[in-house]
Amino acid sequence: xxxxxxxxxxxxxxxxxxxxxxxxxxxxxxxxxxxxxxxxxxxxxxxxxxxxxxxxxxxxxxxxxxxxxxxxxxxxxxxxxxxxxxxxxxxxxxxxxxxxxxxxxxxxxxxxxxxxxxxxxxxxxxxxxxxxxxxxxxxxxxxxxxxxxxxxxxxxxxxxxxxxxxxxxxxxxxxxxxxxxxxxxxxxxxxxxxxxxxxxxxxxxxxxxxxxxxxxxxxxxxxxxxxxxxxxxxxxxxxxxxxxxxxxxxxxxxxxxxxxxxxxxxxxxxxxxxxxxxxxxxxxxxxxxxxxxxxxxxxxxxxxxxxxxxxxxxxxxxxxxxxxxxxxxxxxxxxxxxxxxxxxxxxxxxxxxxxxxxxxxxxxxxxxxxxxxxxxxxxxxxxxxxxxxxxxxxxxxxxxxxxxxxxxxxxxxxxxxxxxxxxxxxxxxxxxxxxxxxxxxxxxxxxxxxxxxxxxxxxxxxxxxxxxxxx
Length: 471
Description:
Layout: E1 4-10, H1 15-20, H2 27-35, E2 37-42, H3 49-58, H4 62-65, E3 71-73, E4 81-83, H5 94-100, E5 105-108, E6 121-124, E7 137-138, H6 142-149, H7 165-189, E8 194-199, H8 201-213, H9 229-245, E9 253-258, E10 262-265, E11 268-271, H10 272-278, E12 306-309, E13 314-318, H11 334-346, E14 359-361, H12 363-366, E15 377-380, E16 386-389, E17 398-399, E18 409-412, E19 414-420, E20 429-430, E21 434-435, H13 439-446, H14 460-463
Parallel strand pairs: 1-8, 1-9, 2-20, 2-21, 5-6, 5-8, 11-16
Antiparallel strand pairs: 2-19, 3-4, 6-7, 9-19, 10-18, 11-17, 12-13, 13-15, 14-15
Helix pairs in contact: 7-8, 7-9, 8-9
C-alpha cells in the first residue's frame, strides 16, 4: 500500500542521456527503474523552469497560470516587464490540495515557491529567493532550525554566468550538498505524506559545461578536461538519492524522479530584433556601437510595429493601436498581421541558407485559457537548437555568443520521469507518452485523494491501467 510520495526533481535532466547513456553509473536510479515505469516527459510551451515546474504541480498550462516565462508583461507599456515568482501562482498546487485533505508536505527548492506561503507542512523556498536575508521558509522559525542544524542555506549557485568553470563547479557541489542535507533533516524530523526537492545544480551544470560533453556542440573538443564533469555530477546525485532513500520505507513510499525539460547543444542565437530591423518592423532612433540590450535603446515607436525579447525562446510583441501607448497596427488588422509575421518567422533560415524547424505559437491557440498578458507570439527556433537573442549591435541576425554570459546548452522539449510504486511492480516498463501535467494527478492518485476535474493531466497510475487506491 502506498502511504507516502517522494519526488526528487532534477531540473533540466535529459532522458536520452540519463536513461540511455549514464544509467549504468546511476545504480540507485537503475534499481528503481527495474521495478518502475520511466520515460520522456513532455514539457510546456515554452519548456523553461518558470513556469514548467508549477505547470507540473498544478496540472495547468502556462496560459491558465498567466505565467509565460521568467519575465512577463505587467501592463501594455513598453517597459512594463517584471520577474515572476510564487506570488503569481494563484491556481491550487498539489500540496494545497493535499493540505485540505489533512496531508502534510515537505518542500525544498521547488521553483516558484518564493515568497513562501503557508502550507500544511514545511517549505524551504527556491532559487528565486533573493538572498538568505529574505524570509525563505515556512513556518518562519524553520529558518532558525536550518541555520542551527545545517548551516547557511544556499538558494542557488552564485555567479554561474562566468568563464571560471572550476569556480562554478565548486559552487554547484556546495549548493547541492546543503540542499540535500536540509531535505534529509526535514524527512527525519518532520511528519510528512508528500515530500519534494528540486535540484537546480543539474540546470546550472548543463548551461556551464555542455560544450565539453556533447559531440553535437560546435565547440566540443574530444578529450577535454571537463568532458566527464556532467556525468560525474549525476553519479553524485545518484549517491544523494541513495542516502535519501535510506530514510524512507520503500514498501510504502512511491518515488518519482522528474525533470521539467531536457537539454541539448546550442548551435547559436537568432538576433530577433536585428531580424525585425532588417524586415522594416523595428526602428531605432540611433543604432548602438556595441551589443546592447534592447531595453537600454531608444526605439522610435511611431515607426515600429514589432519588437522582441531574447532567451531560450523568443517573445514577440506587436505595437497595437489602442493597446500600446503609441500603437501602429490597427486592431482590425491584428490577426492578419500576426499570421503573416508568424509565417515569416517560421521561414527564417540559418546563416548557410538552410531552413530551420521553427514554430511560432499563438497563445490563445496553444493554451486552454489565456490569463494576464501573454506575448503575441512565442517562438521556438529550430526545435531549440538555436536560442533567441534580444540585444542589438551585431548588424546580423545570427550570433554565436550569448548576450547574457557564457551558456552552452539550450533546453529540450522532453524532460524525464521515473515512477516507482510499491503497490505494483511495473518491471522497468518504458512509456514515453506522459506530459509533465500528469505528475500532480499521479501524486493525488497514489495518496488516495480525489483529482480535481479541472486538472489537465491524468494519473500515470490510472493510464497504465493499474488499480489505483481510489479504484
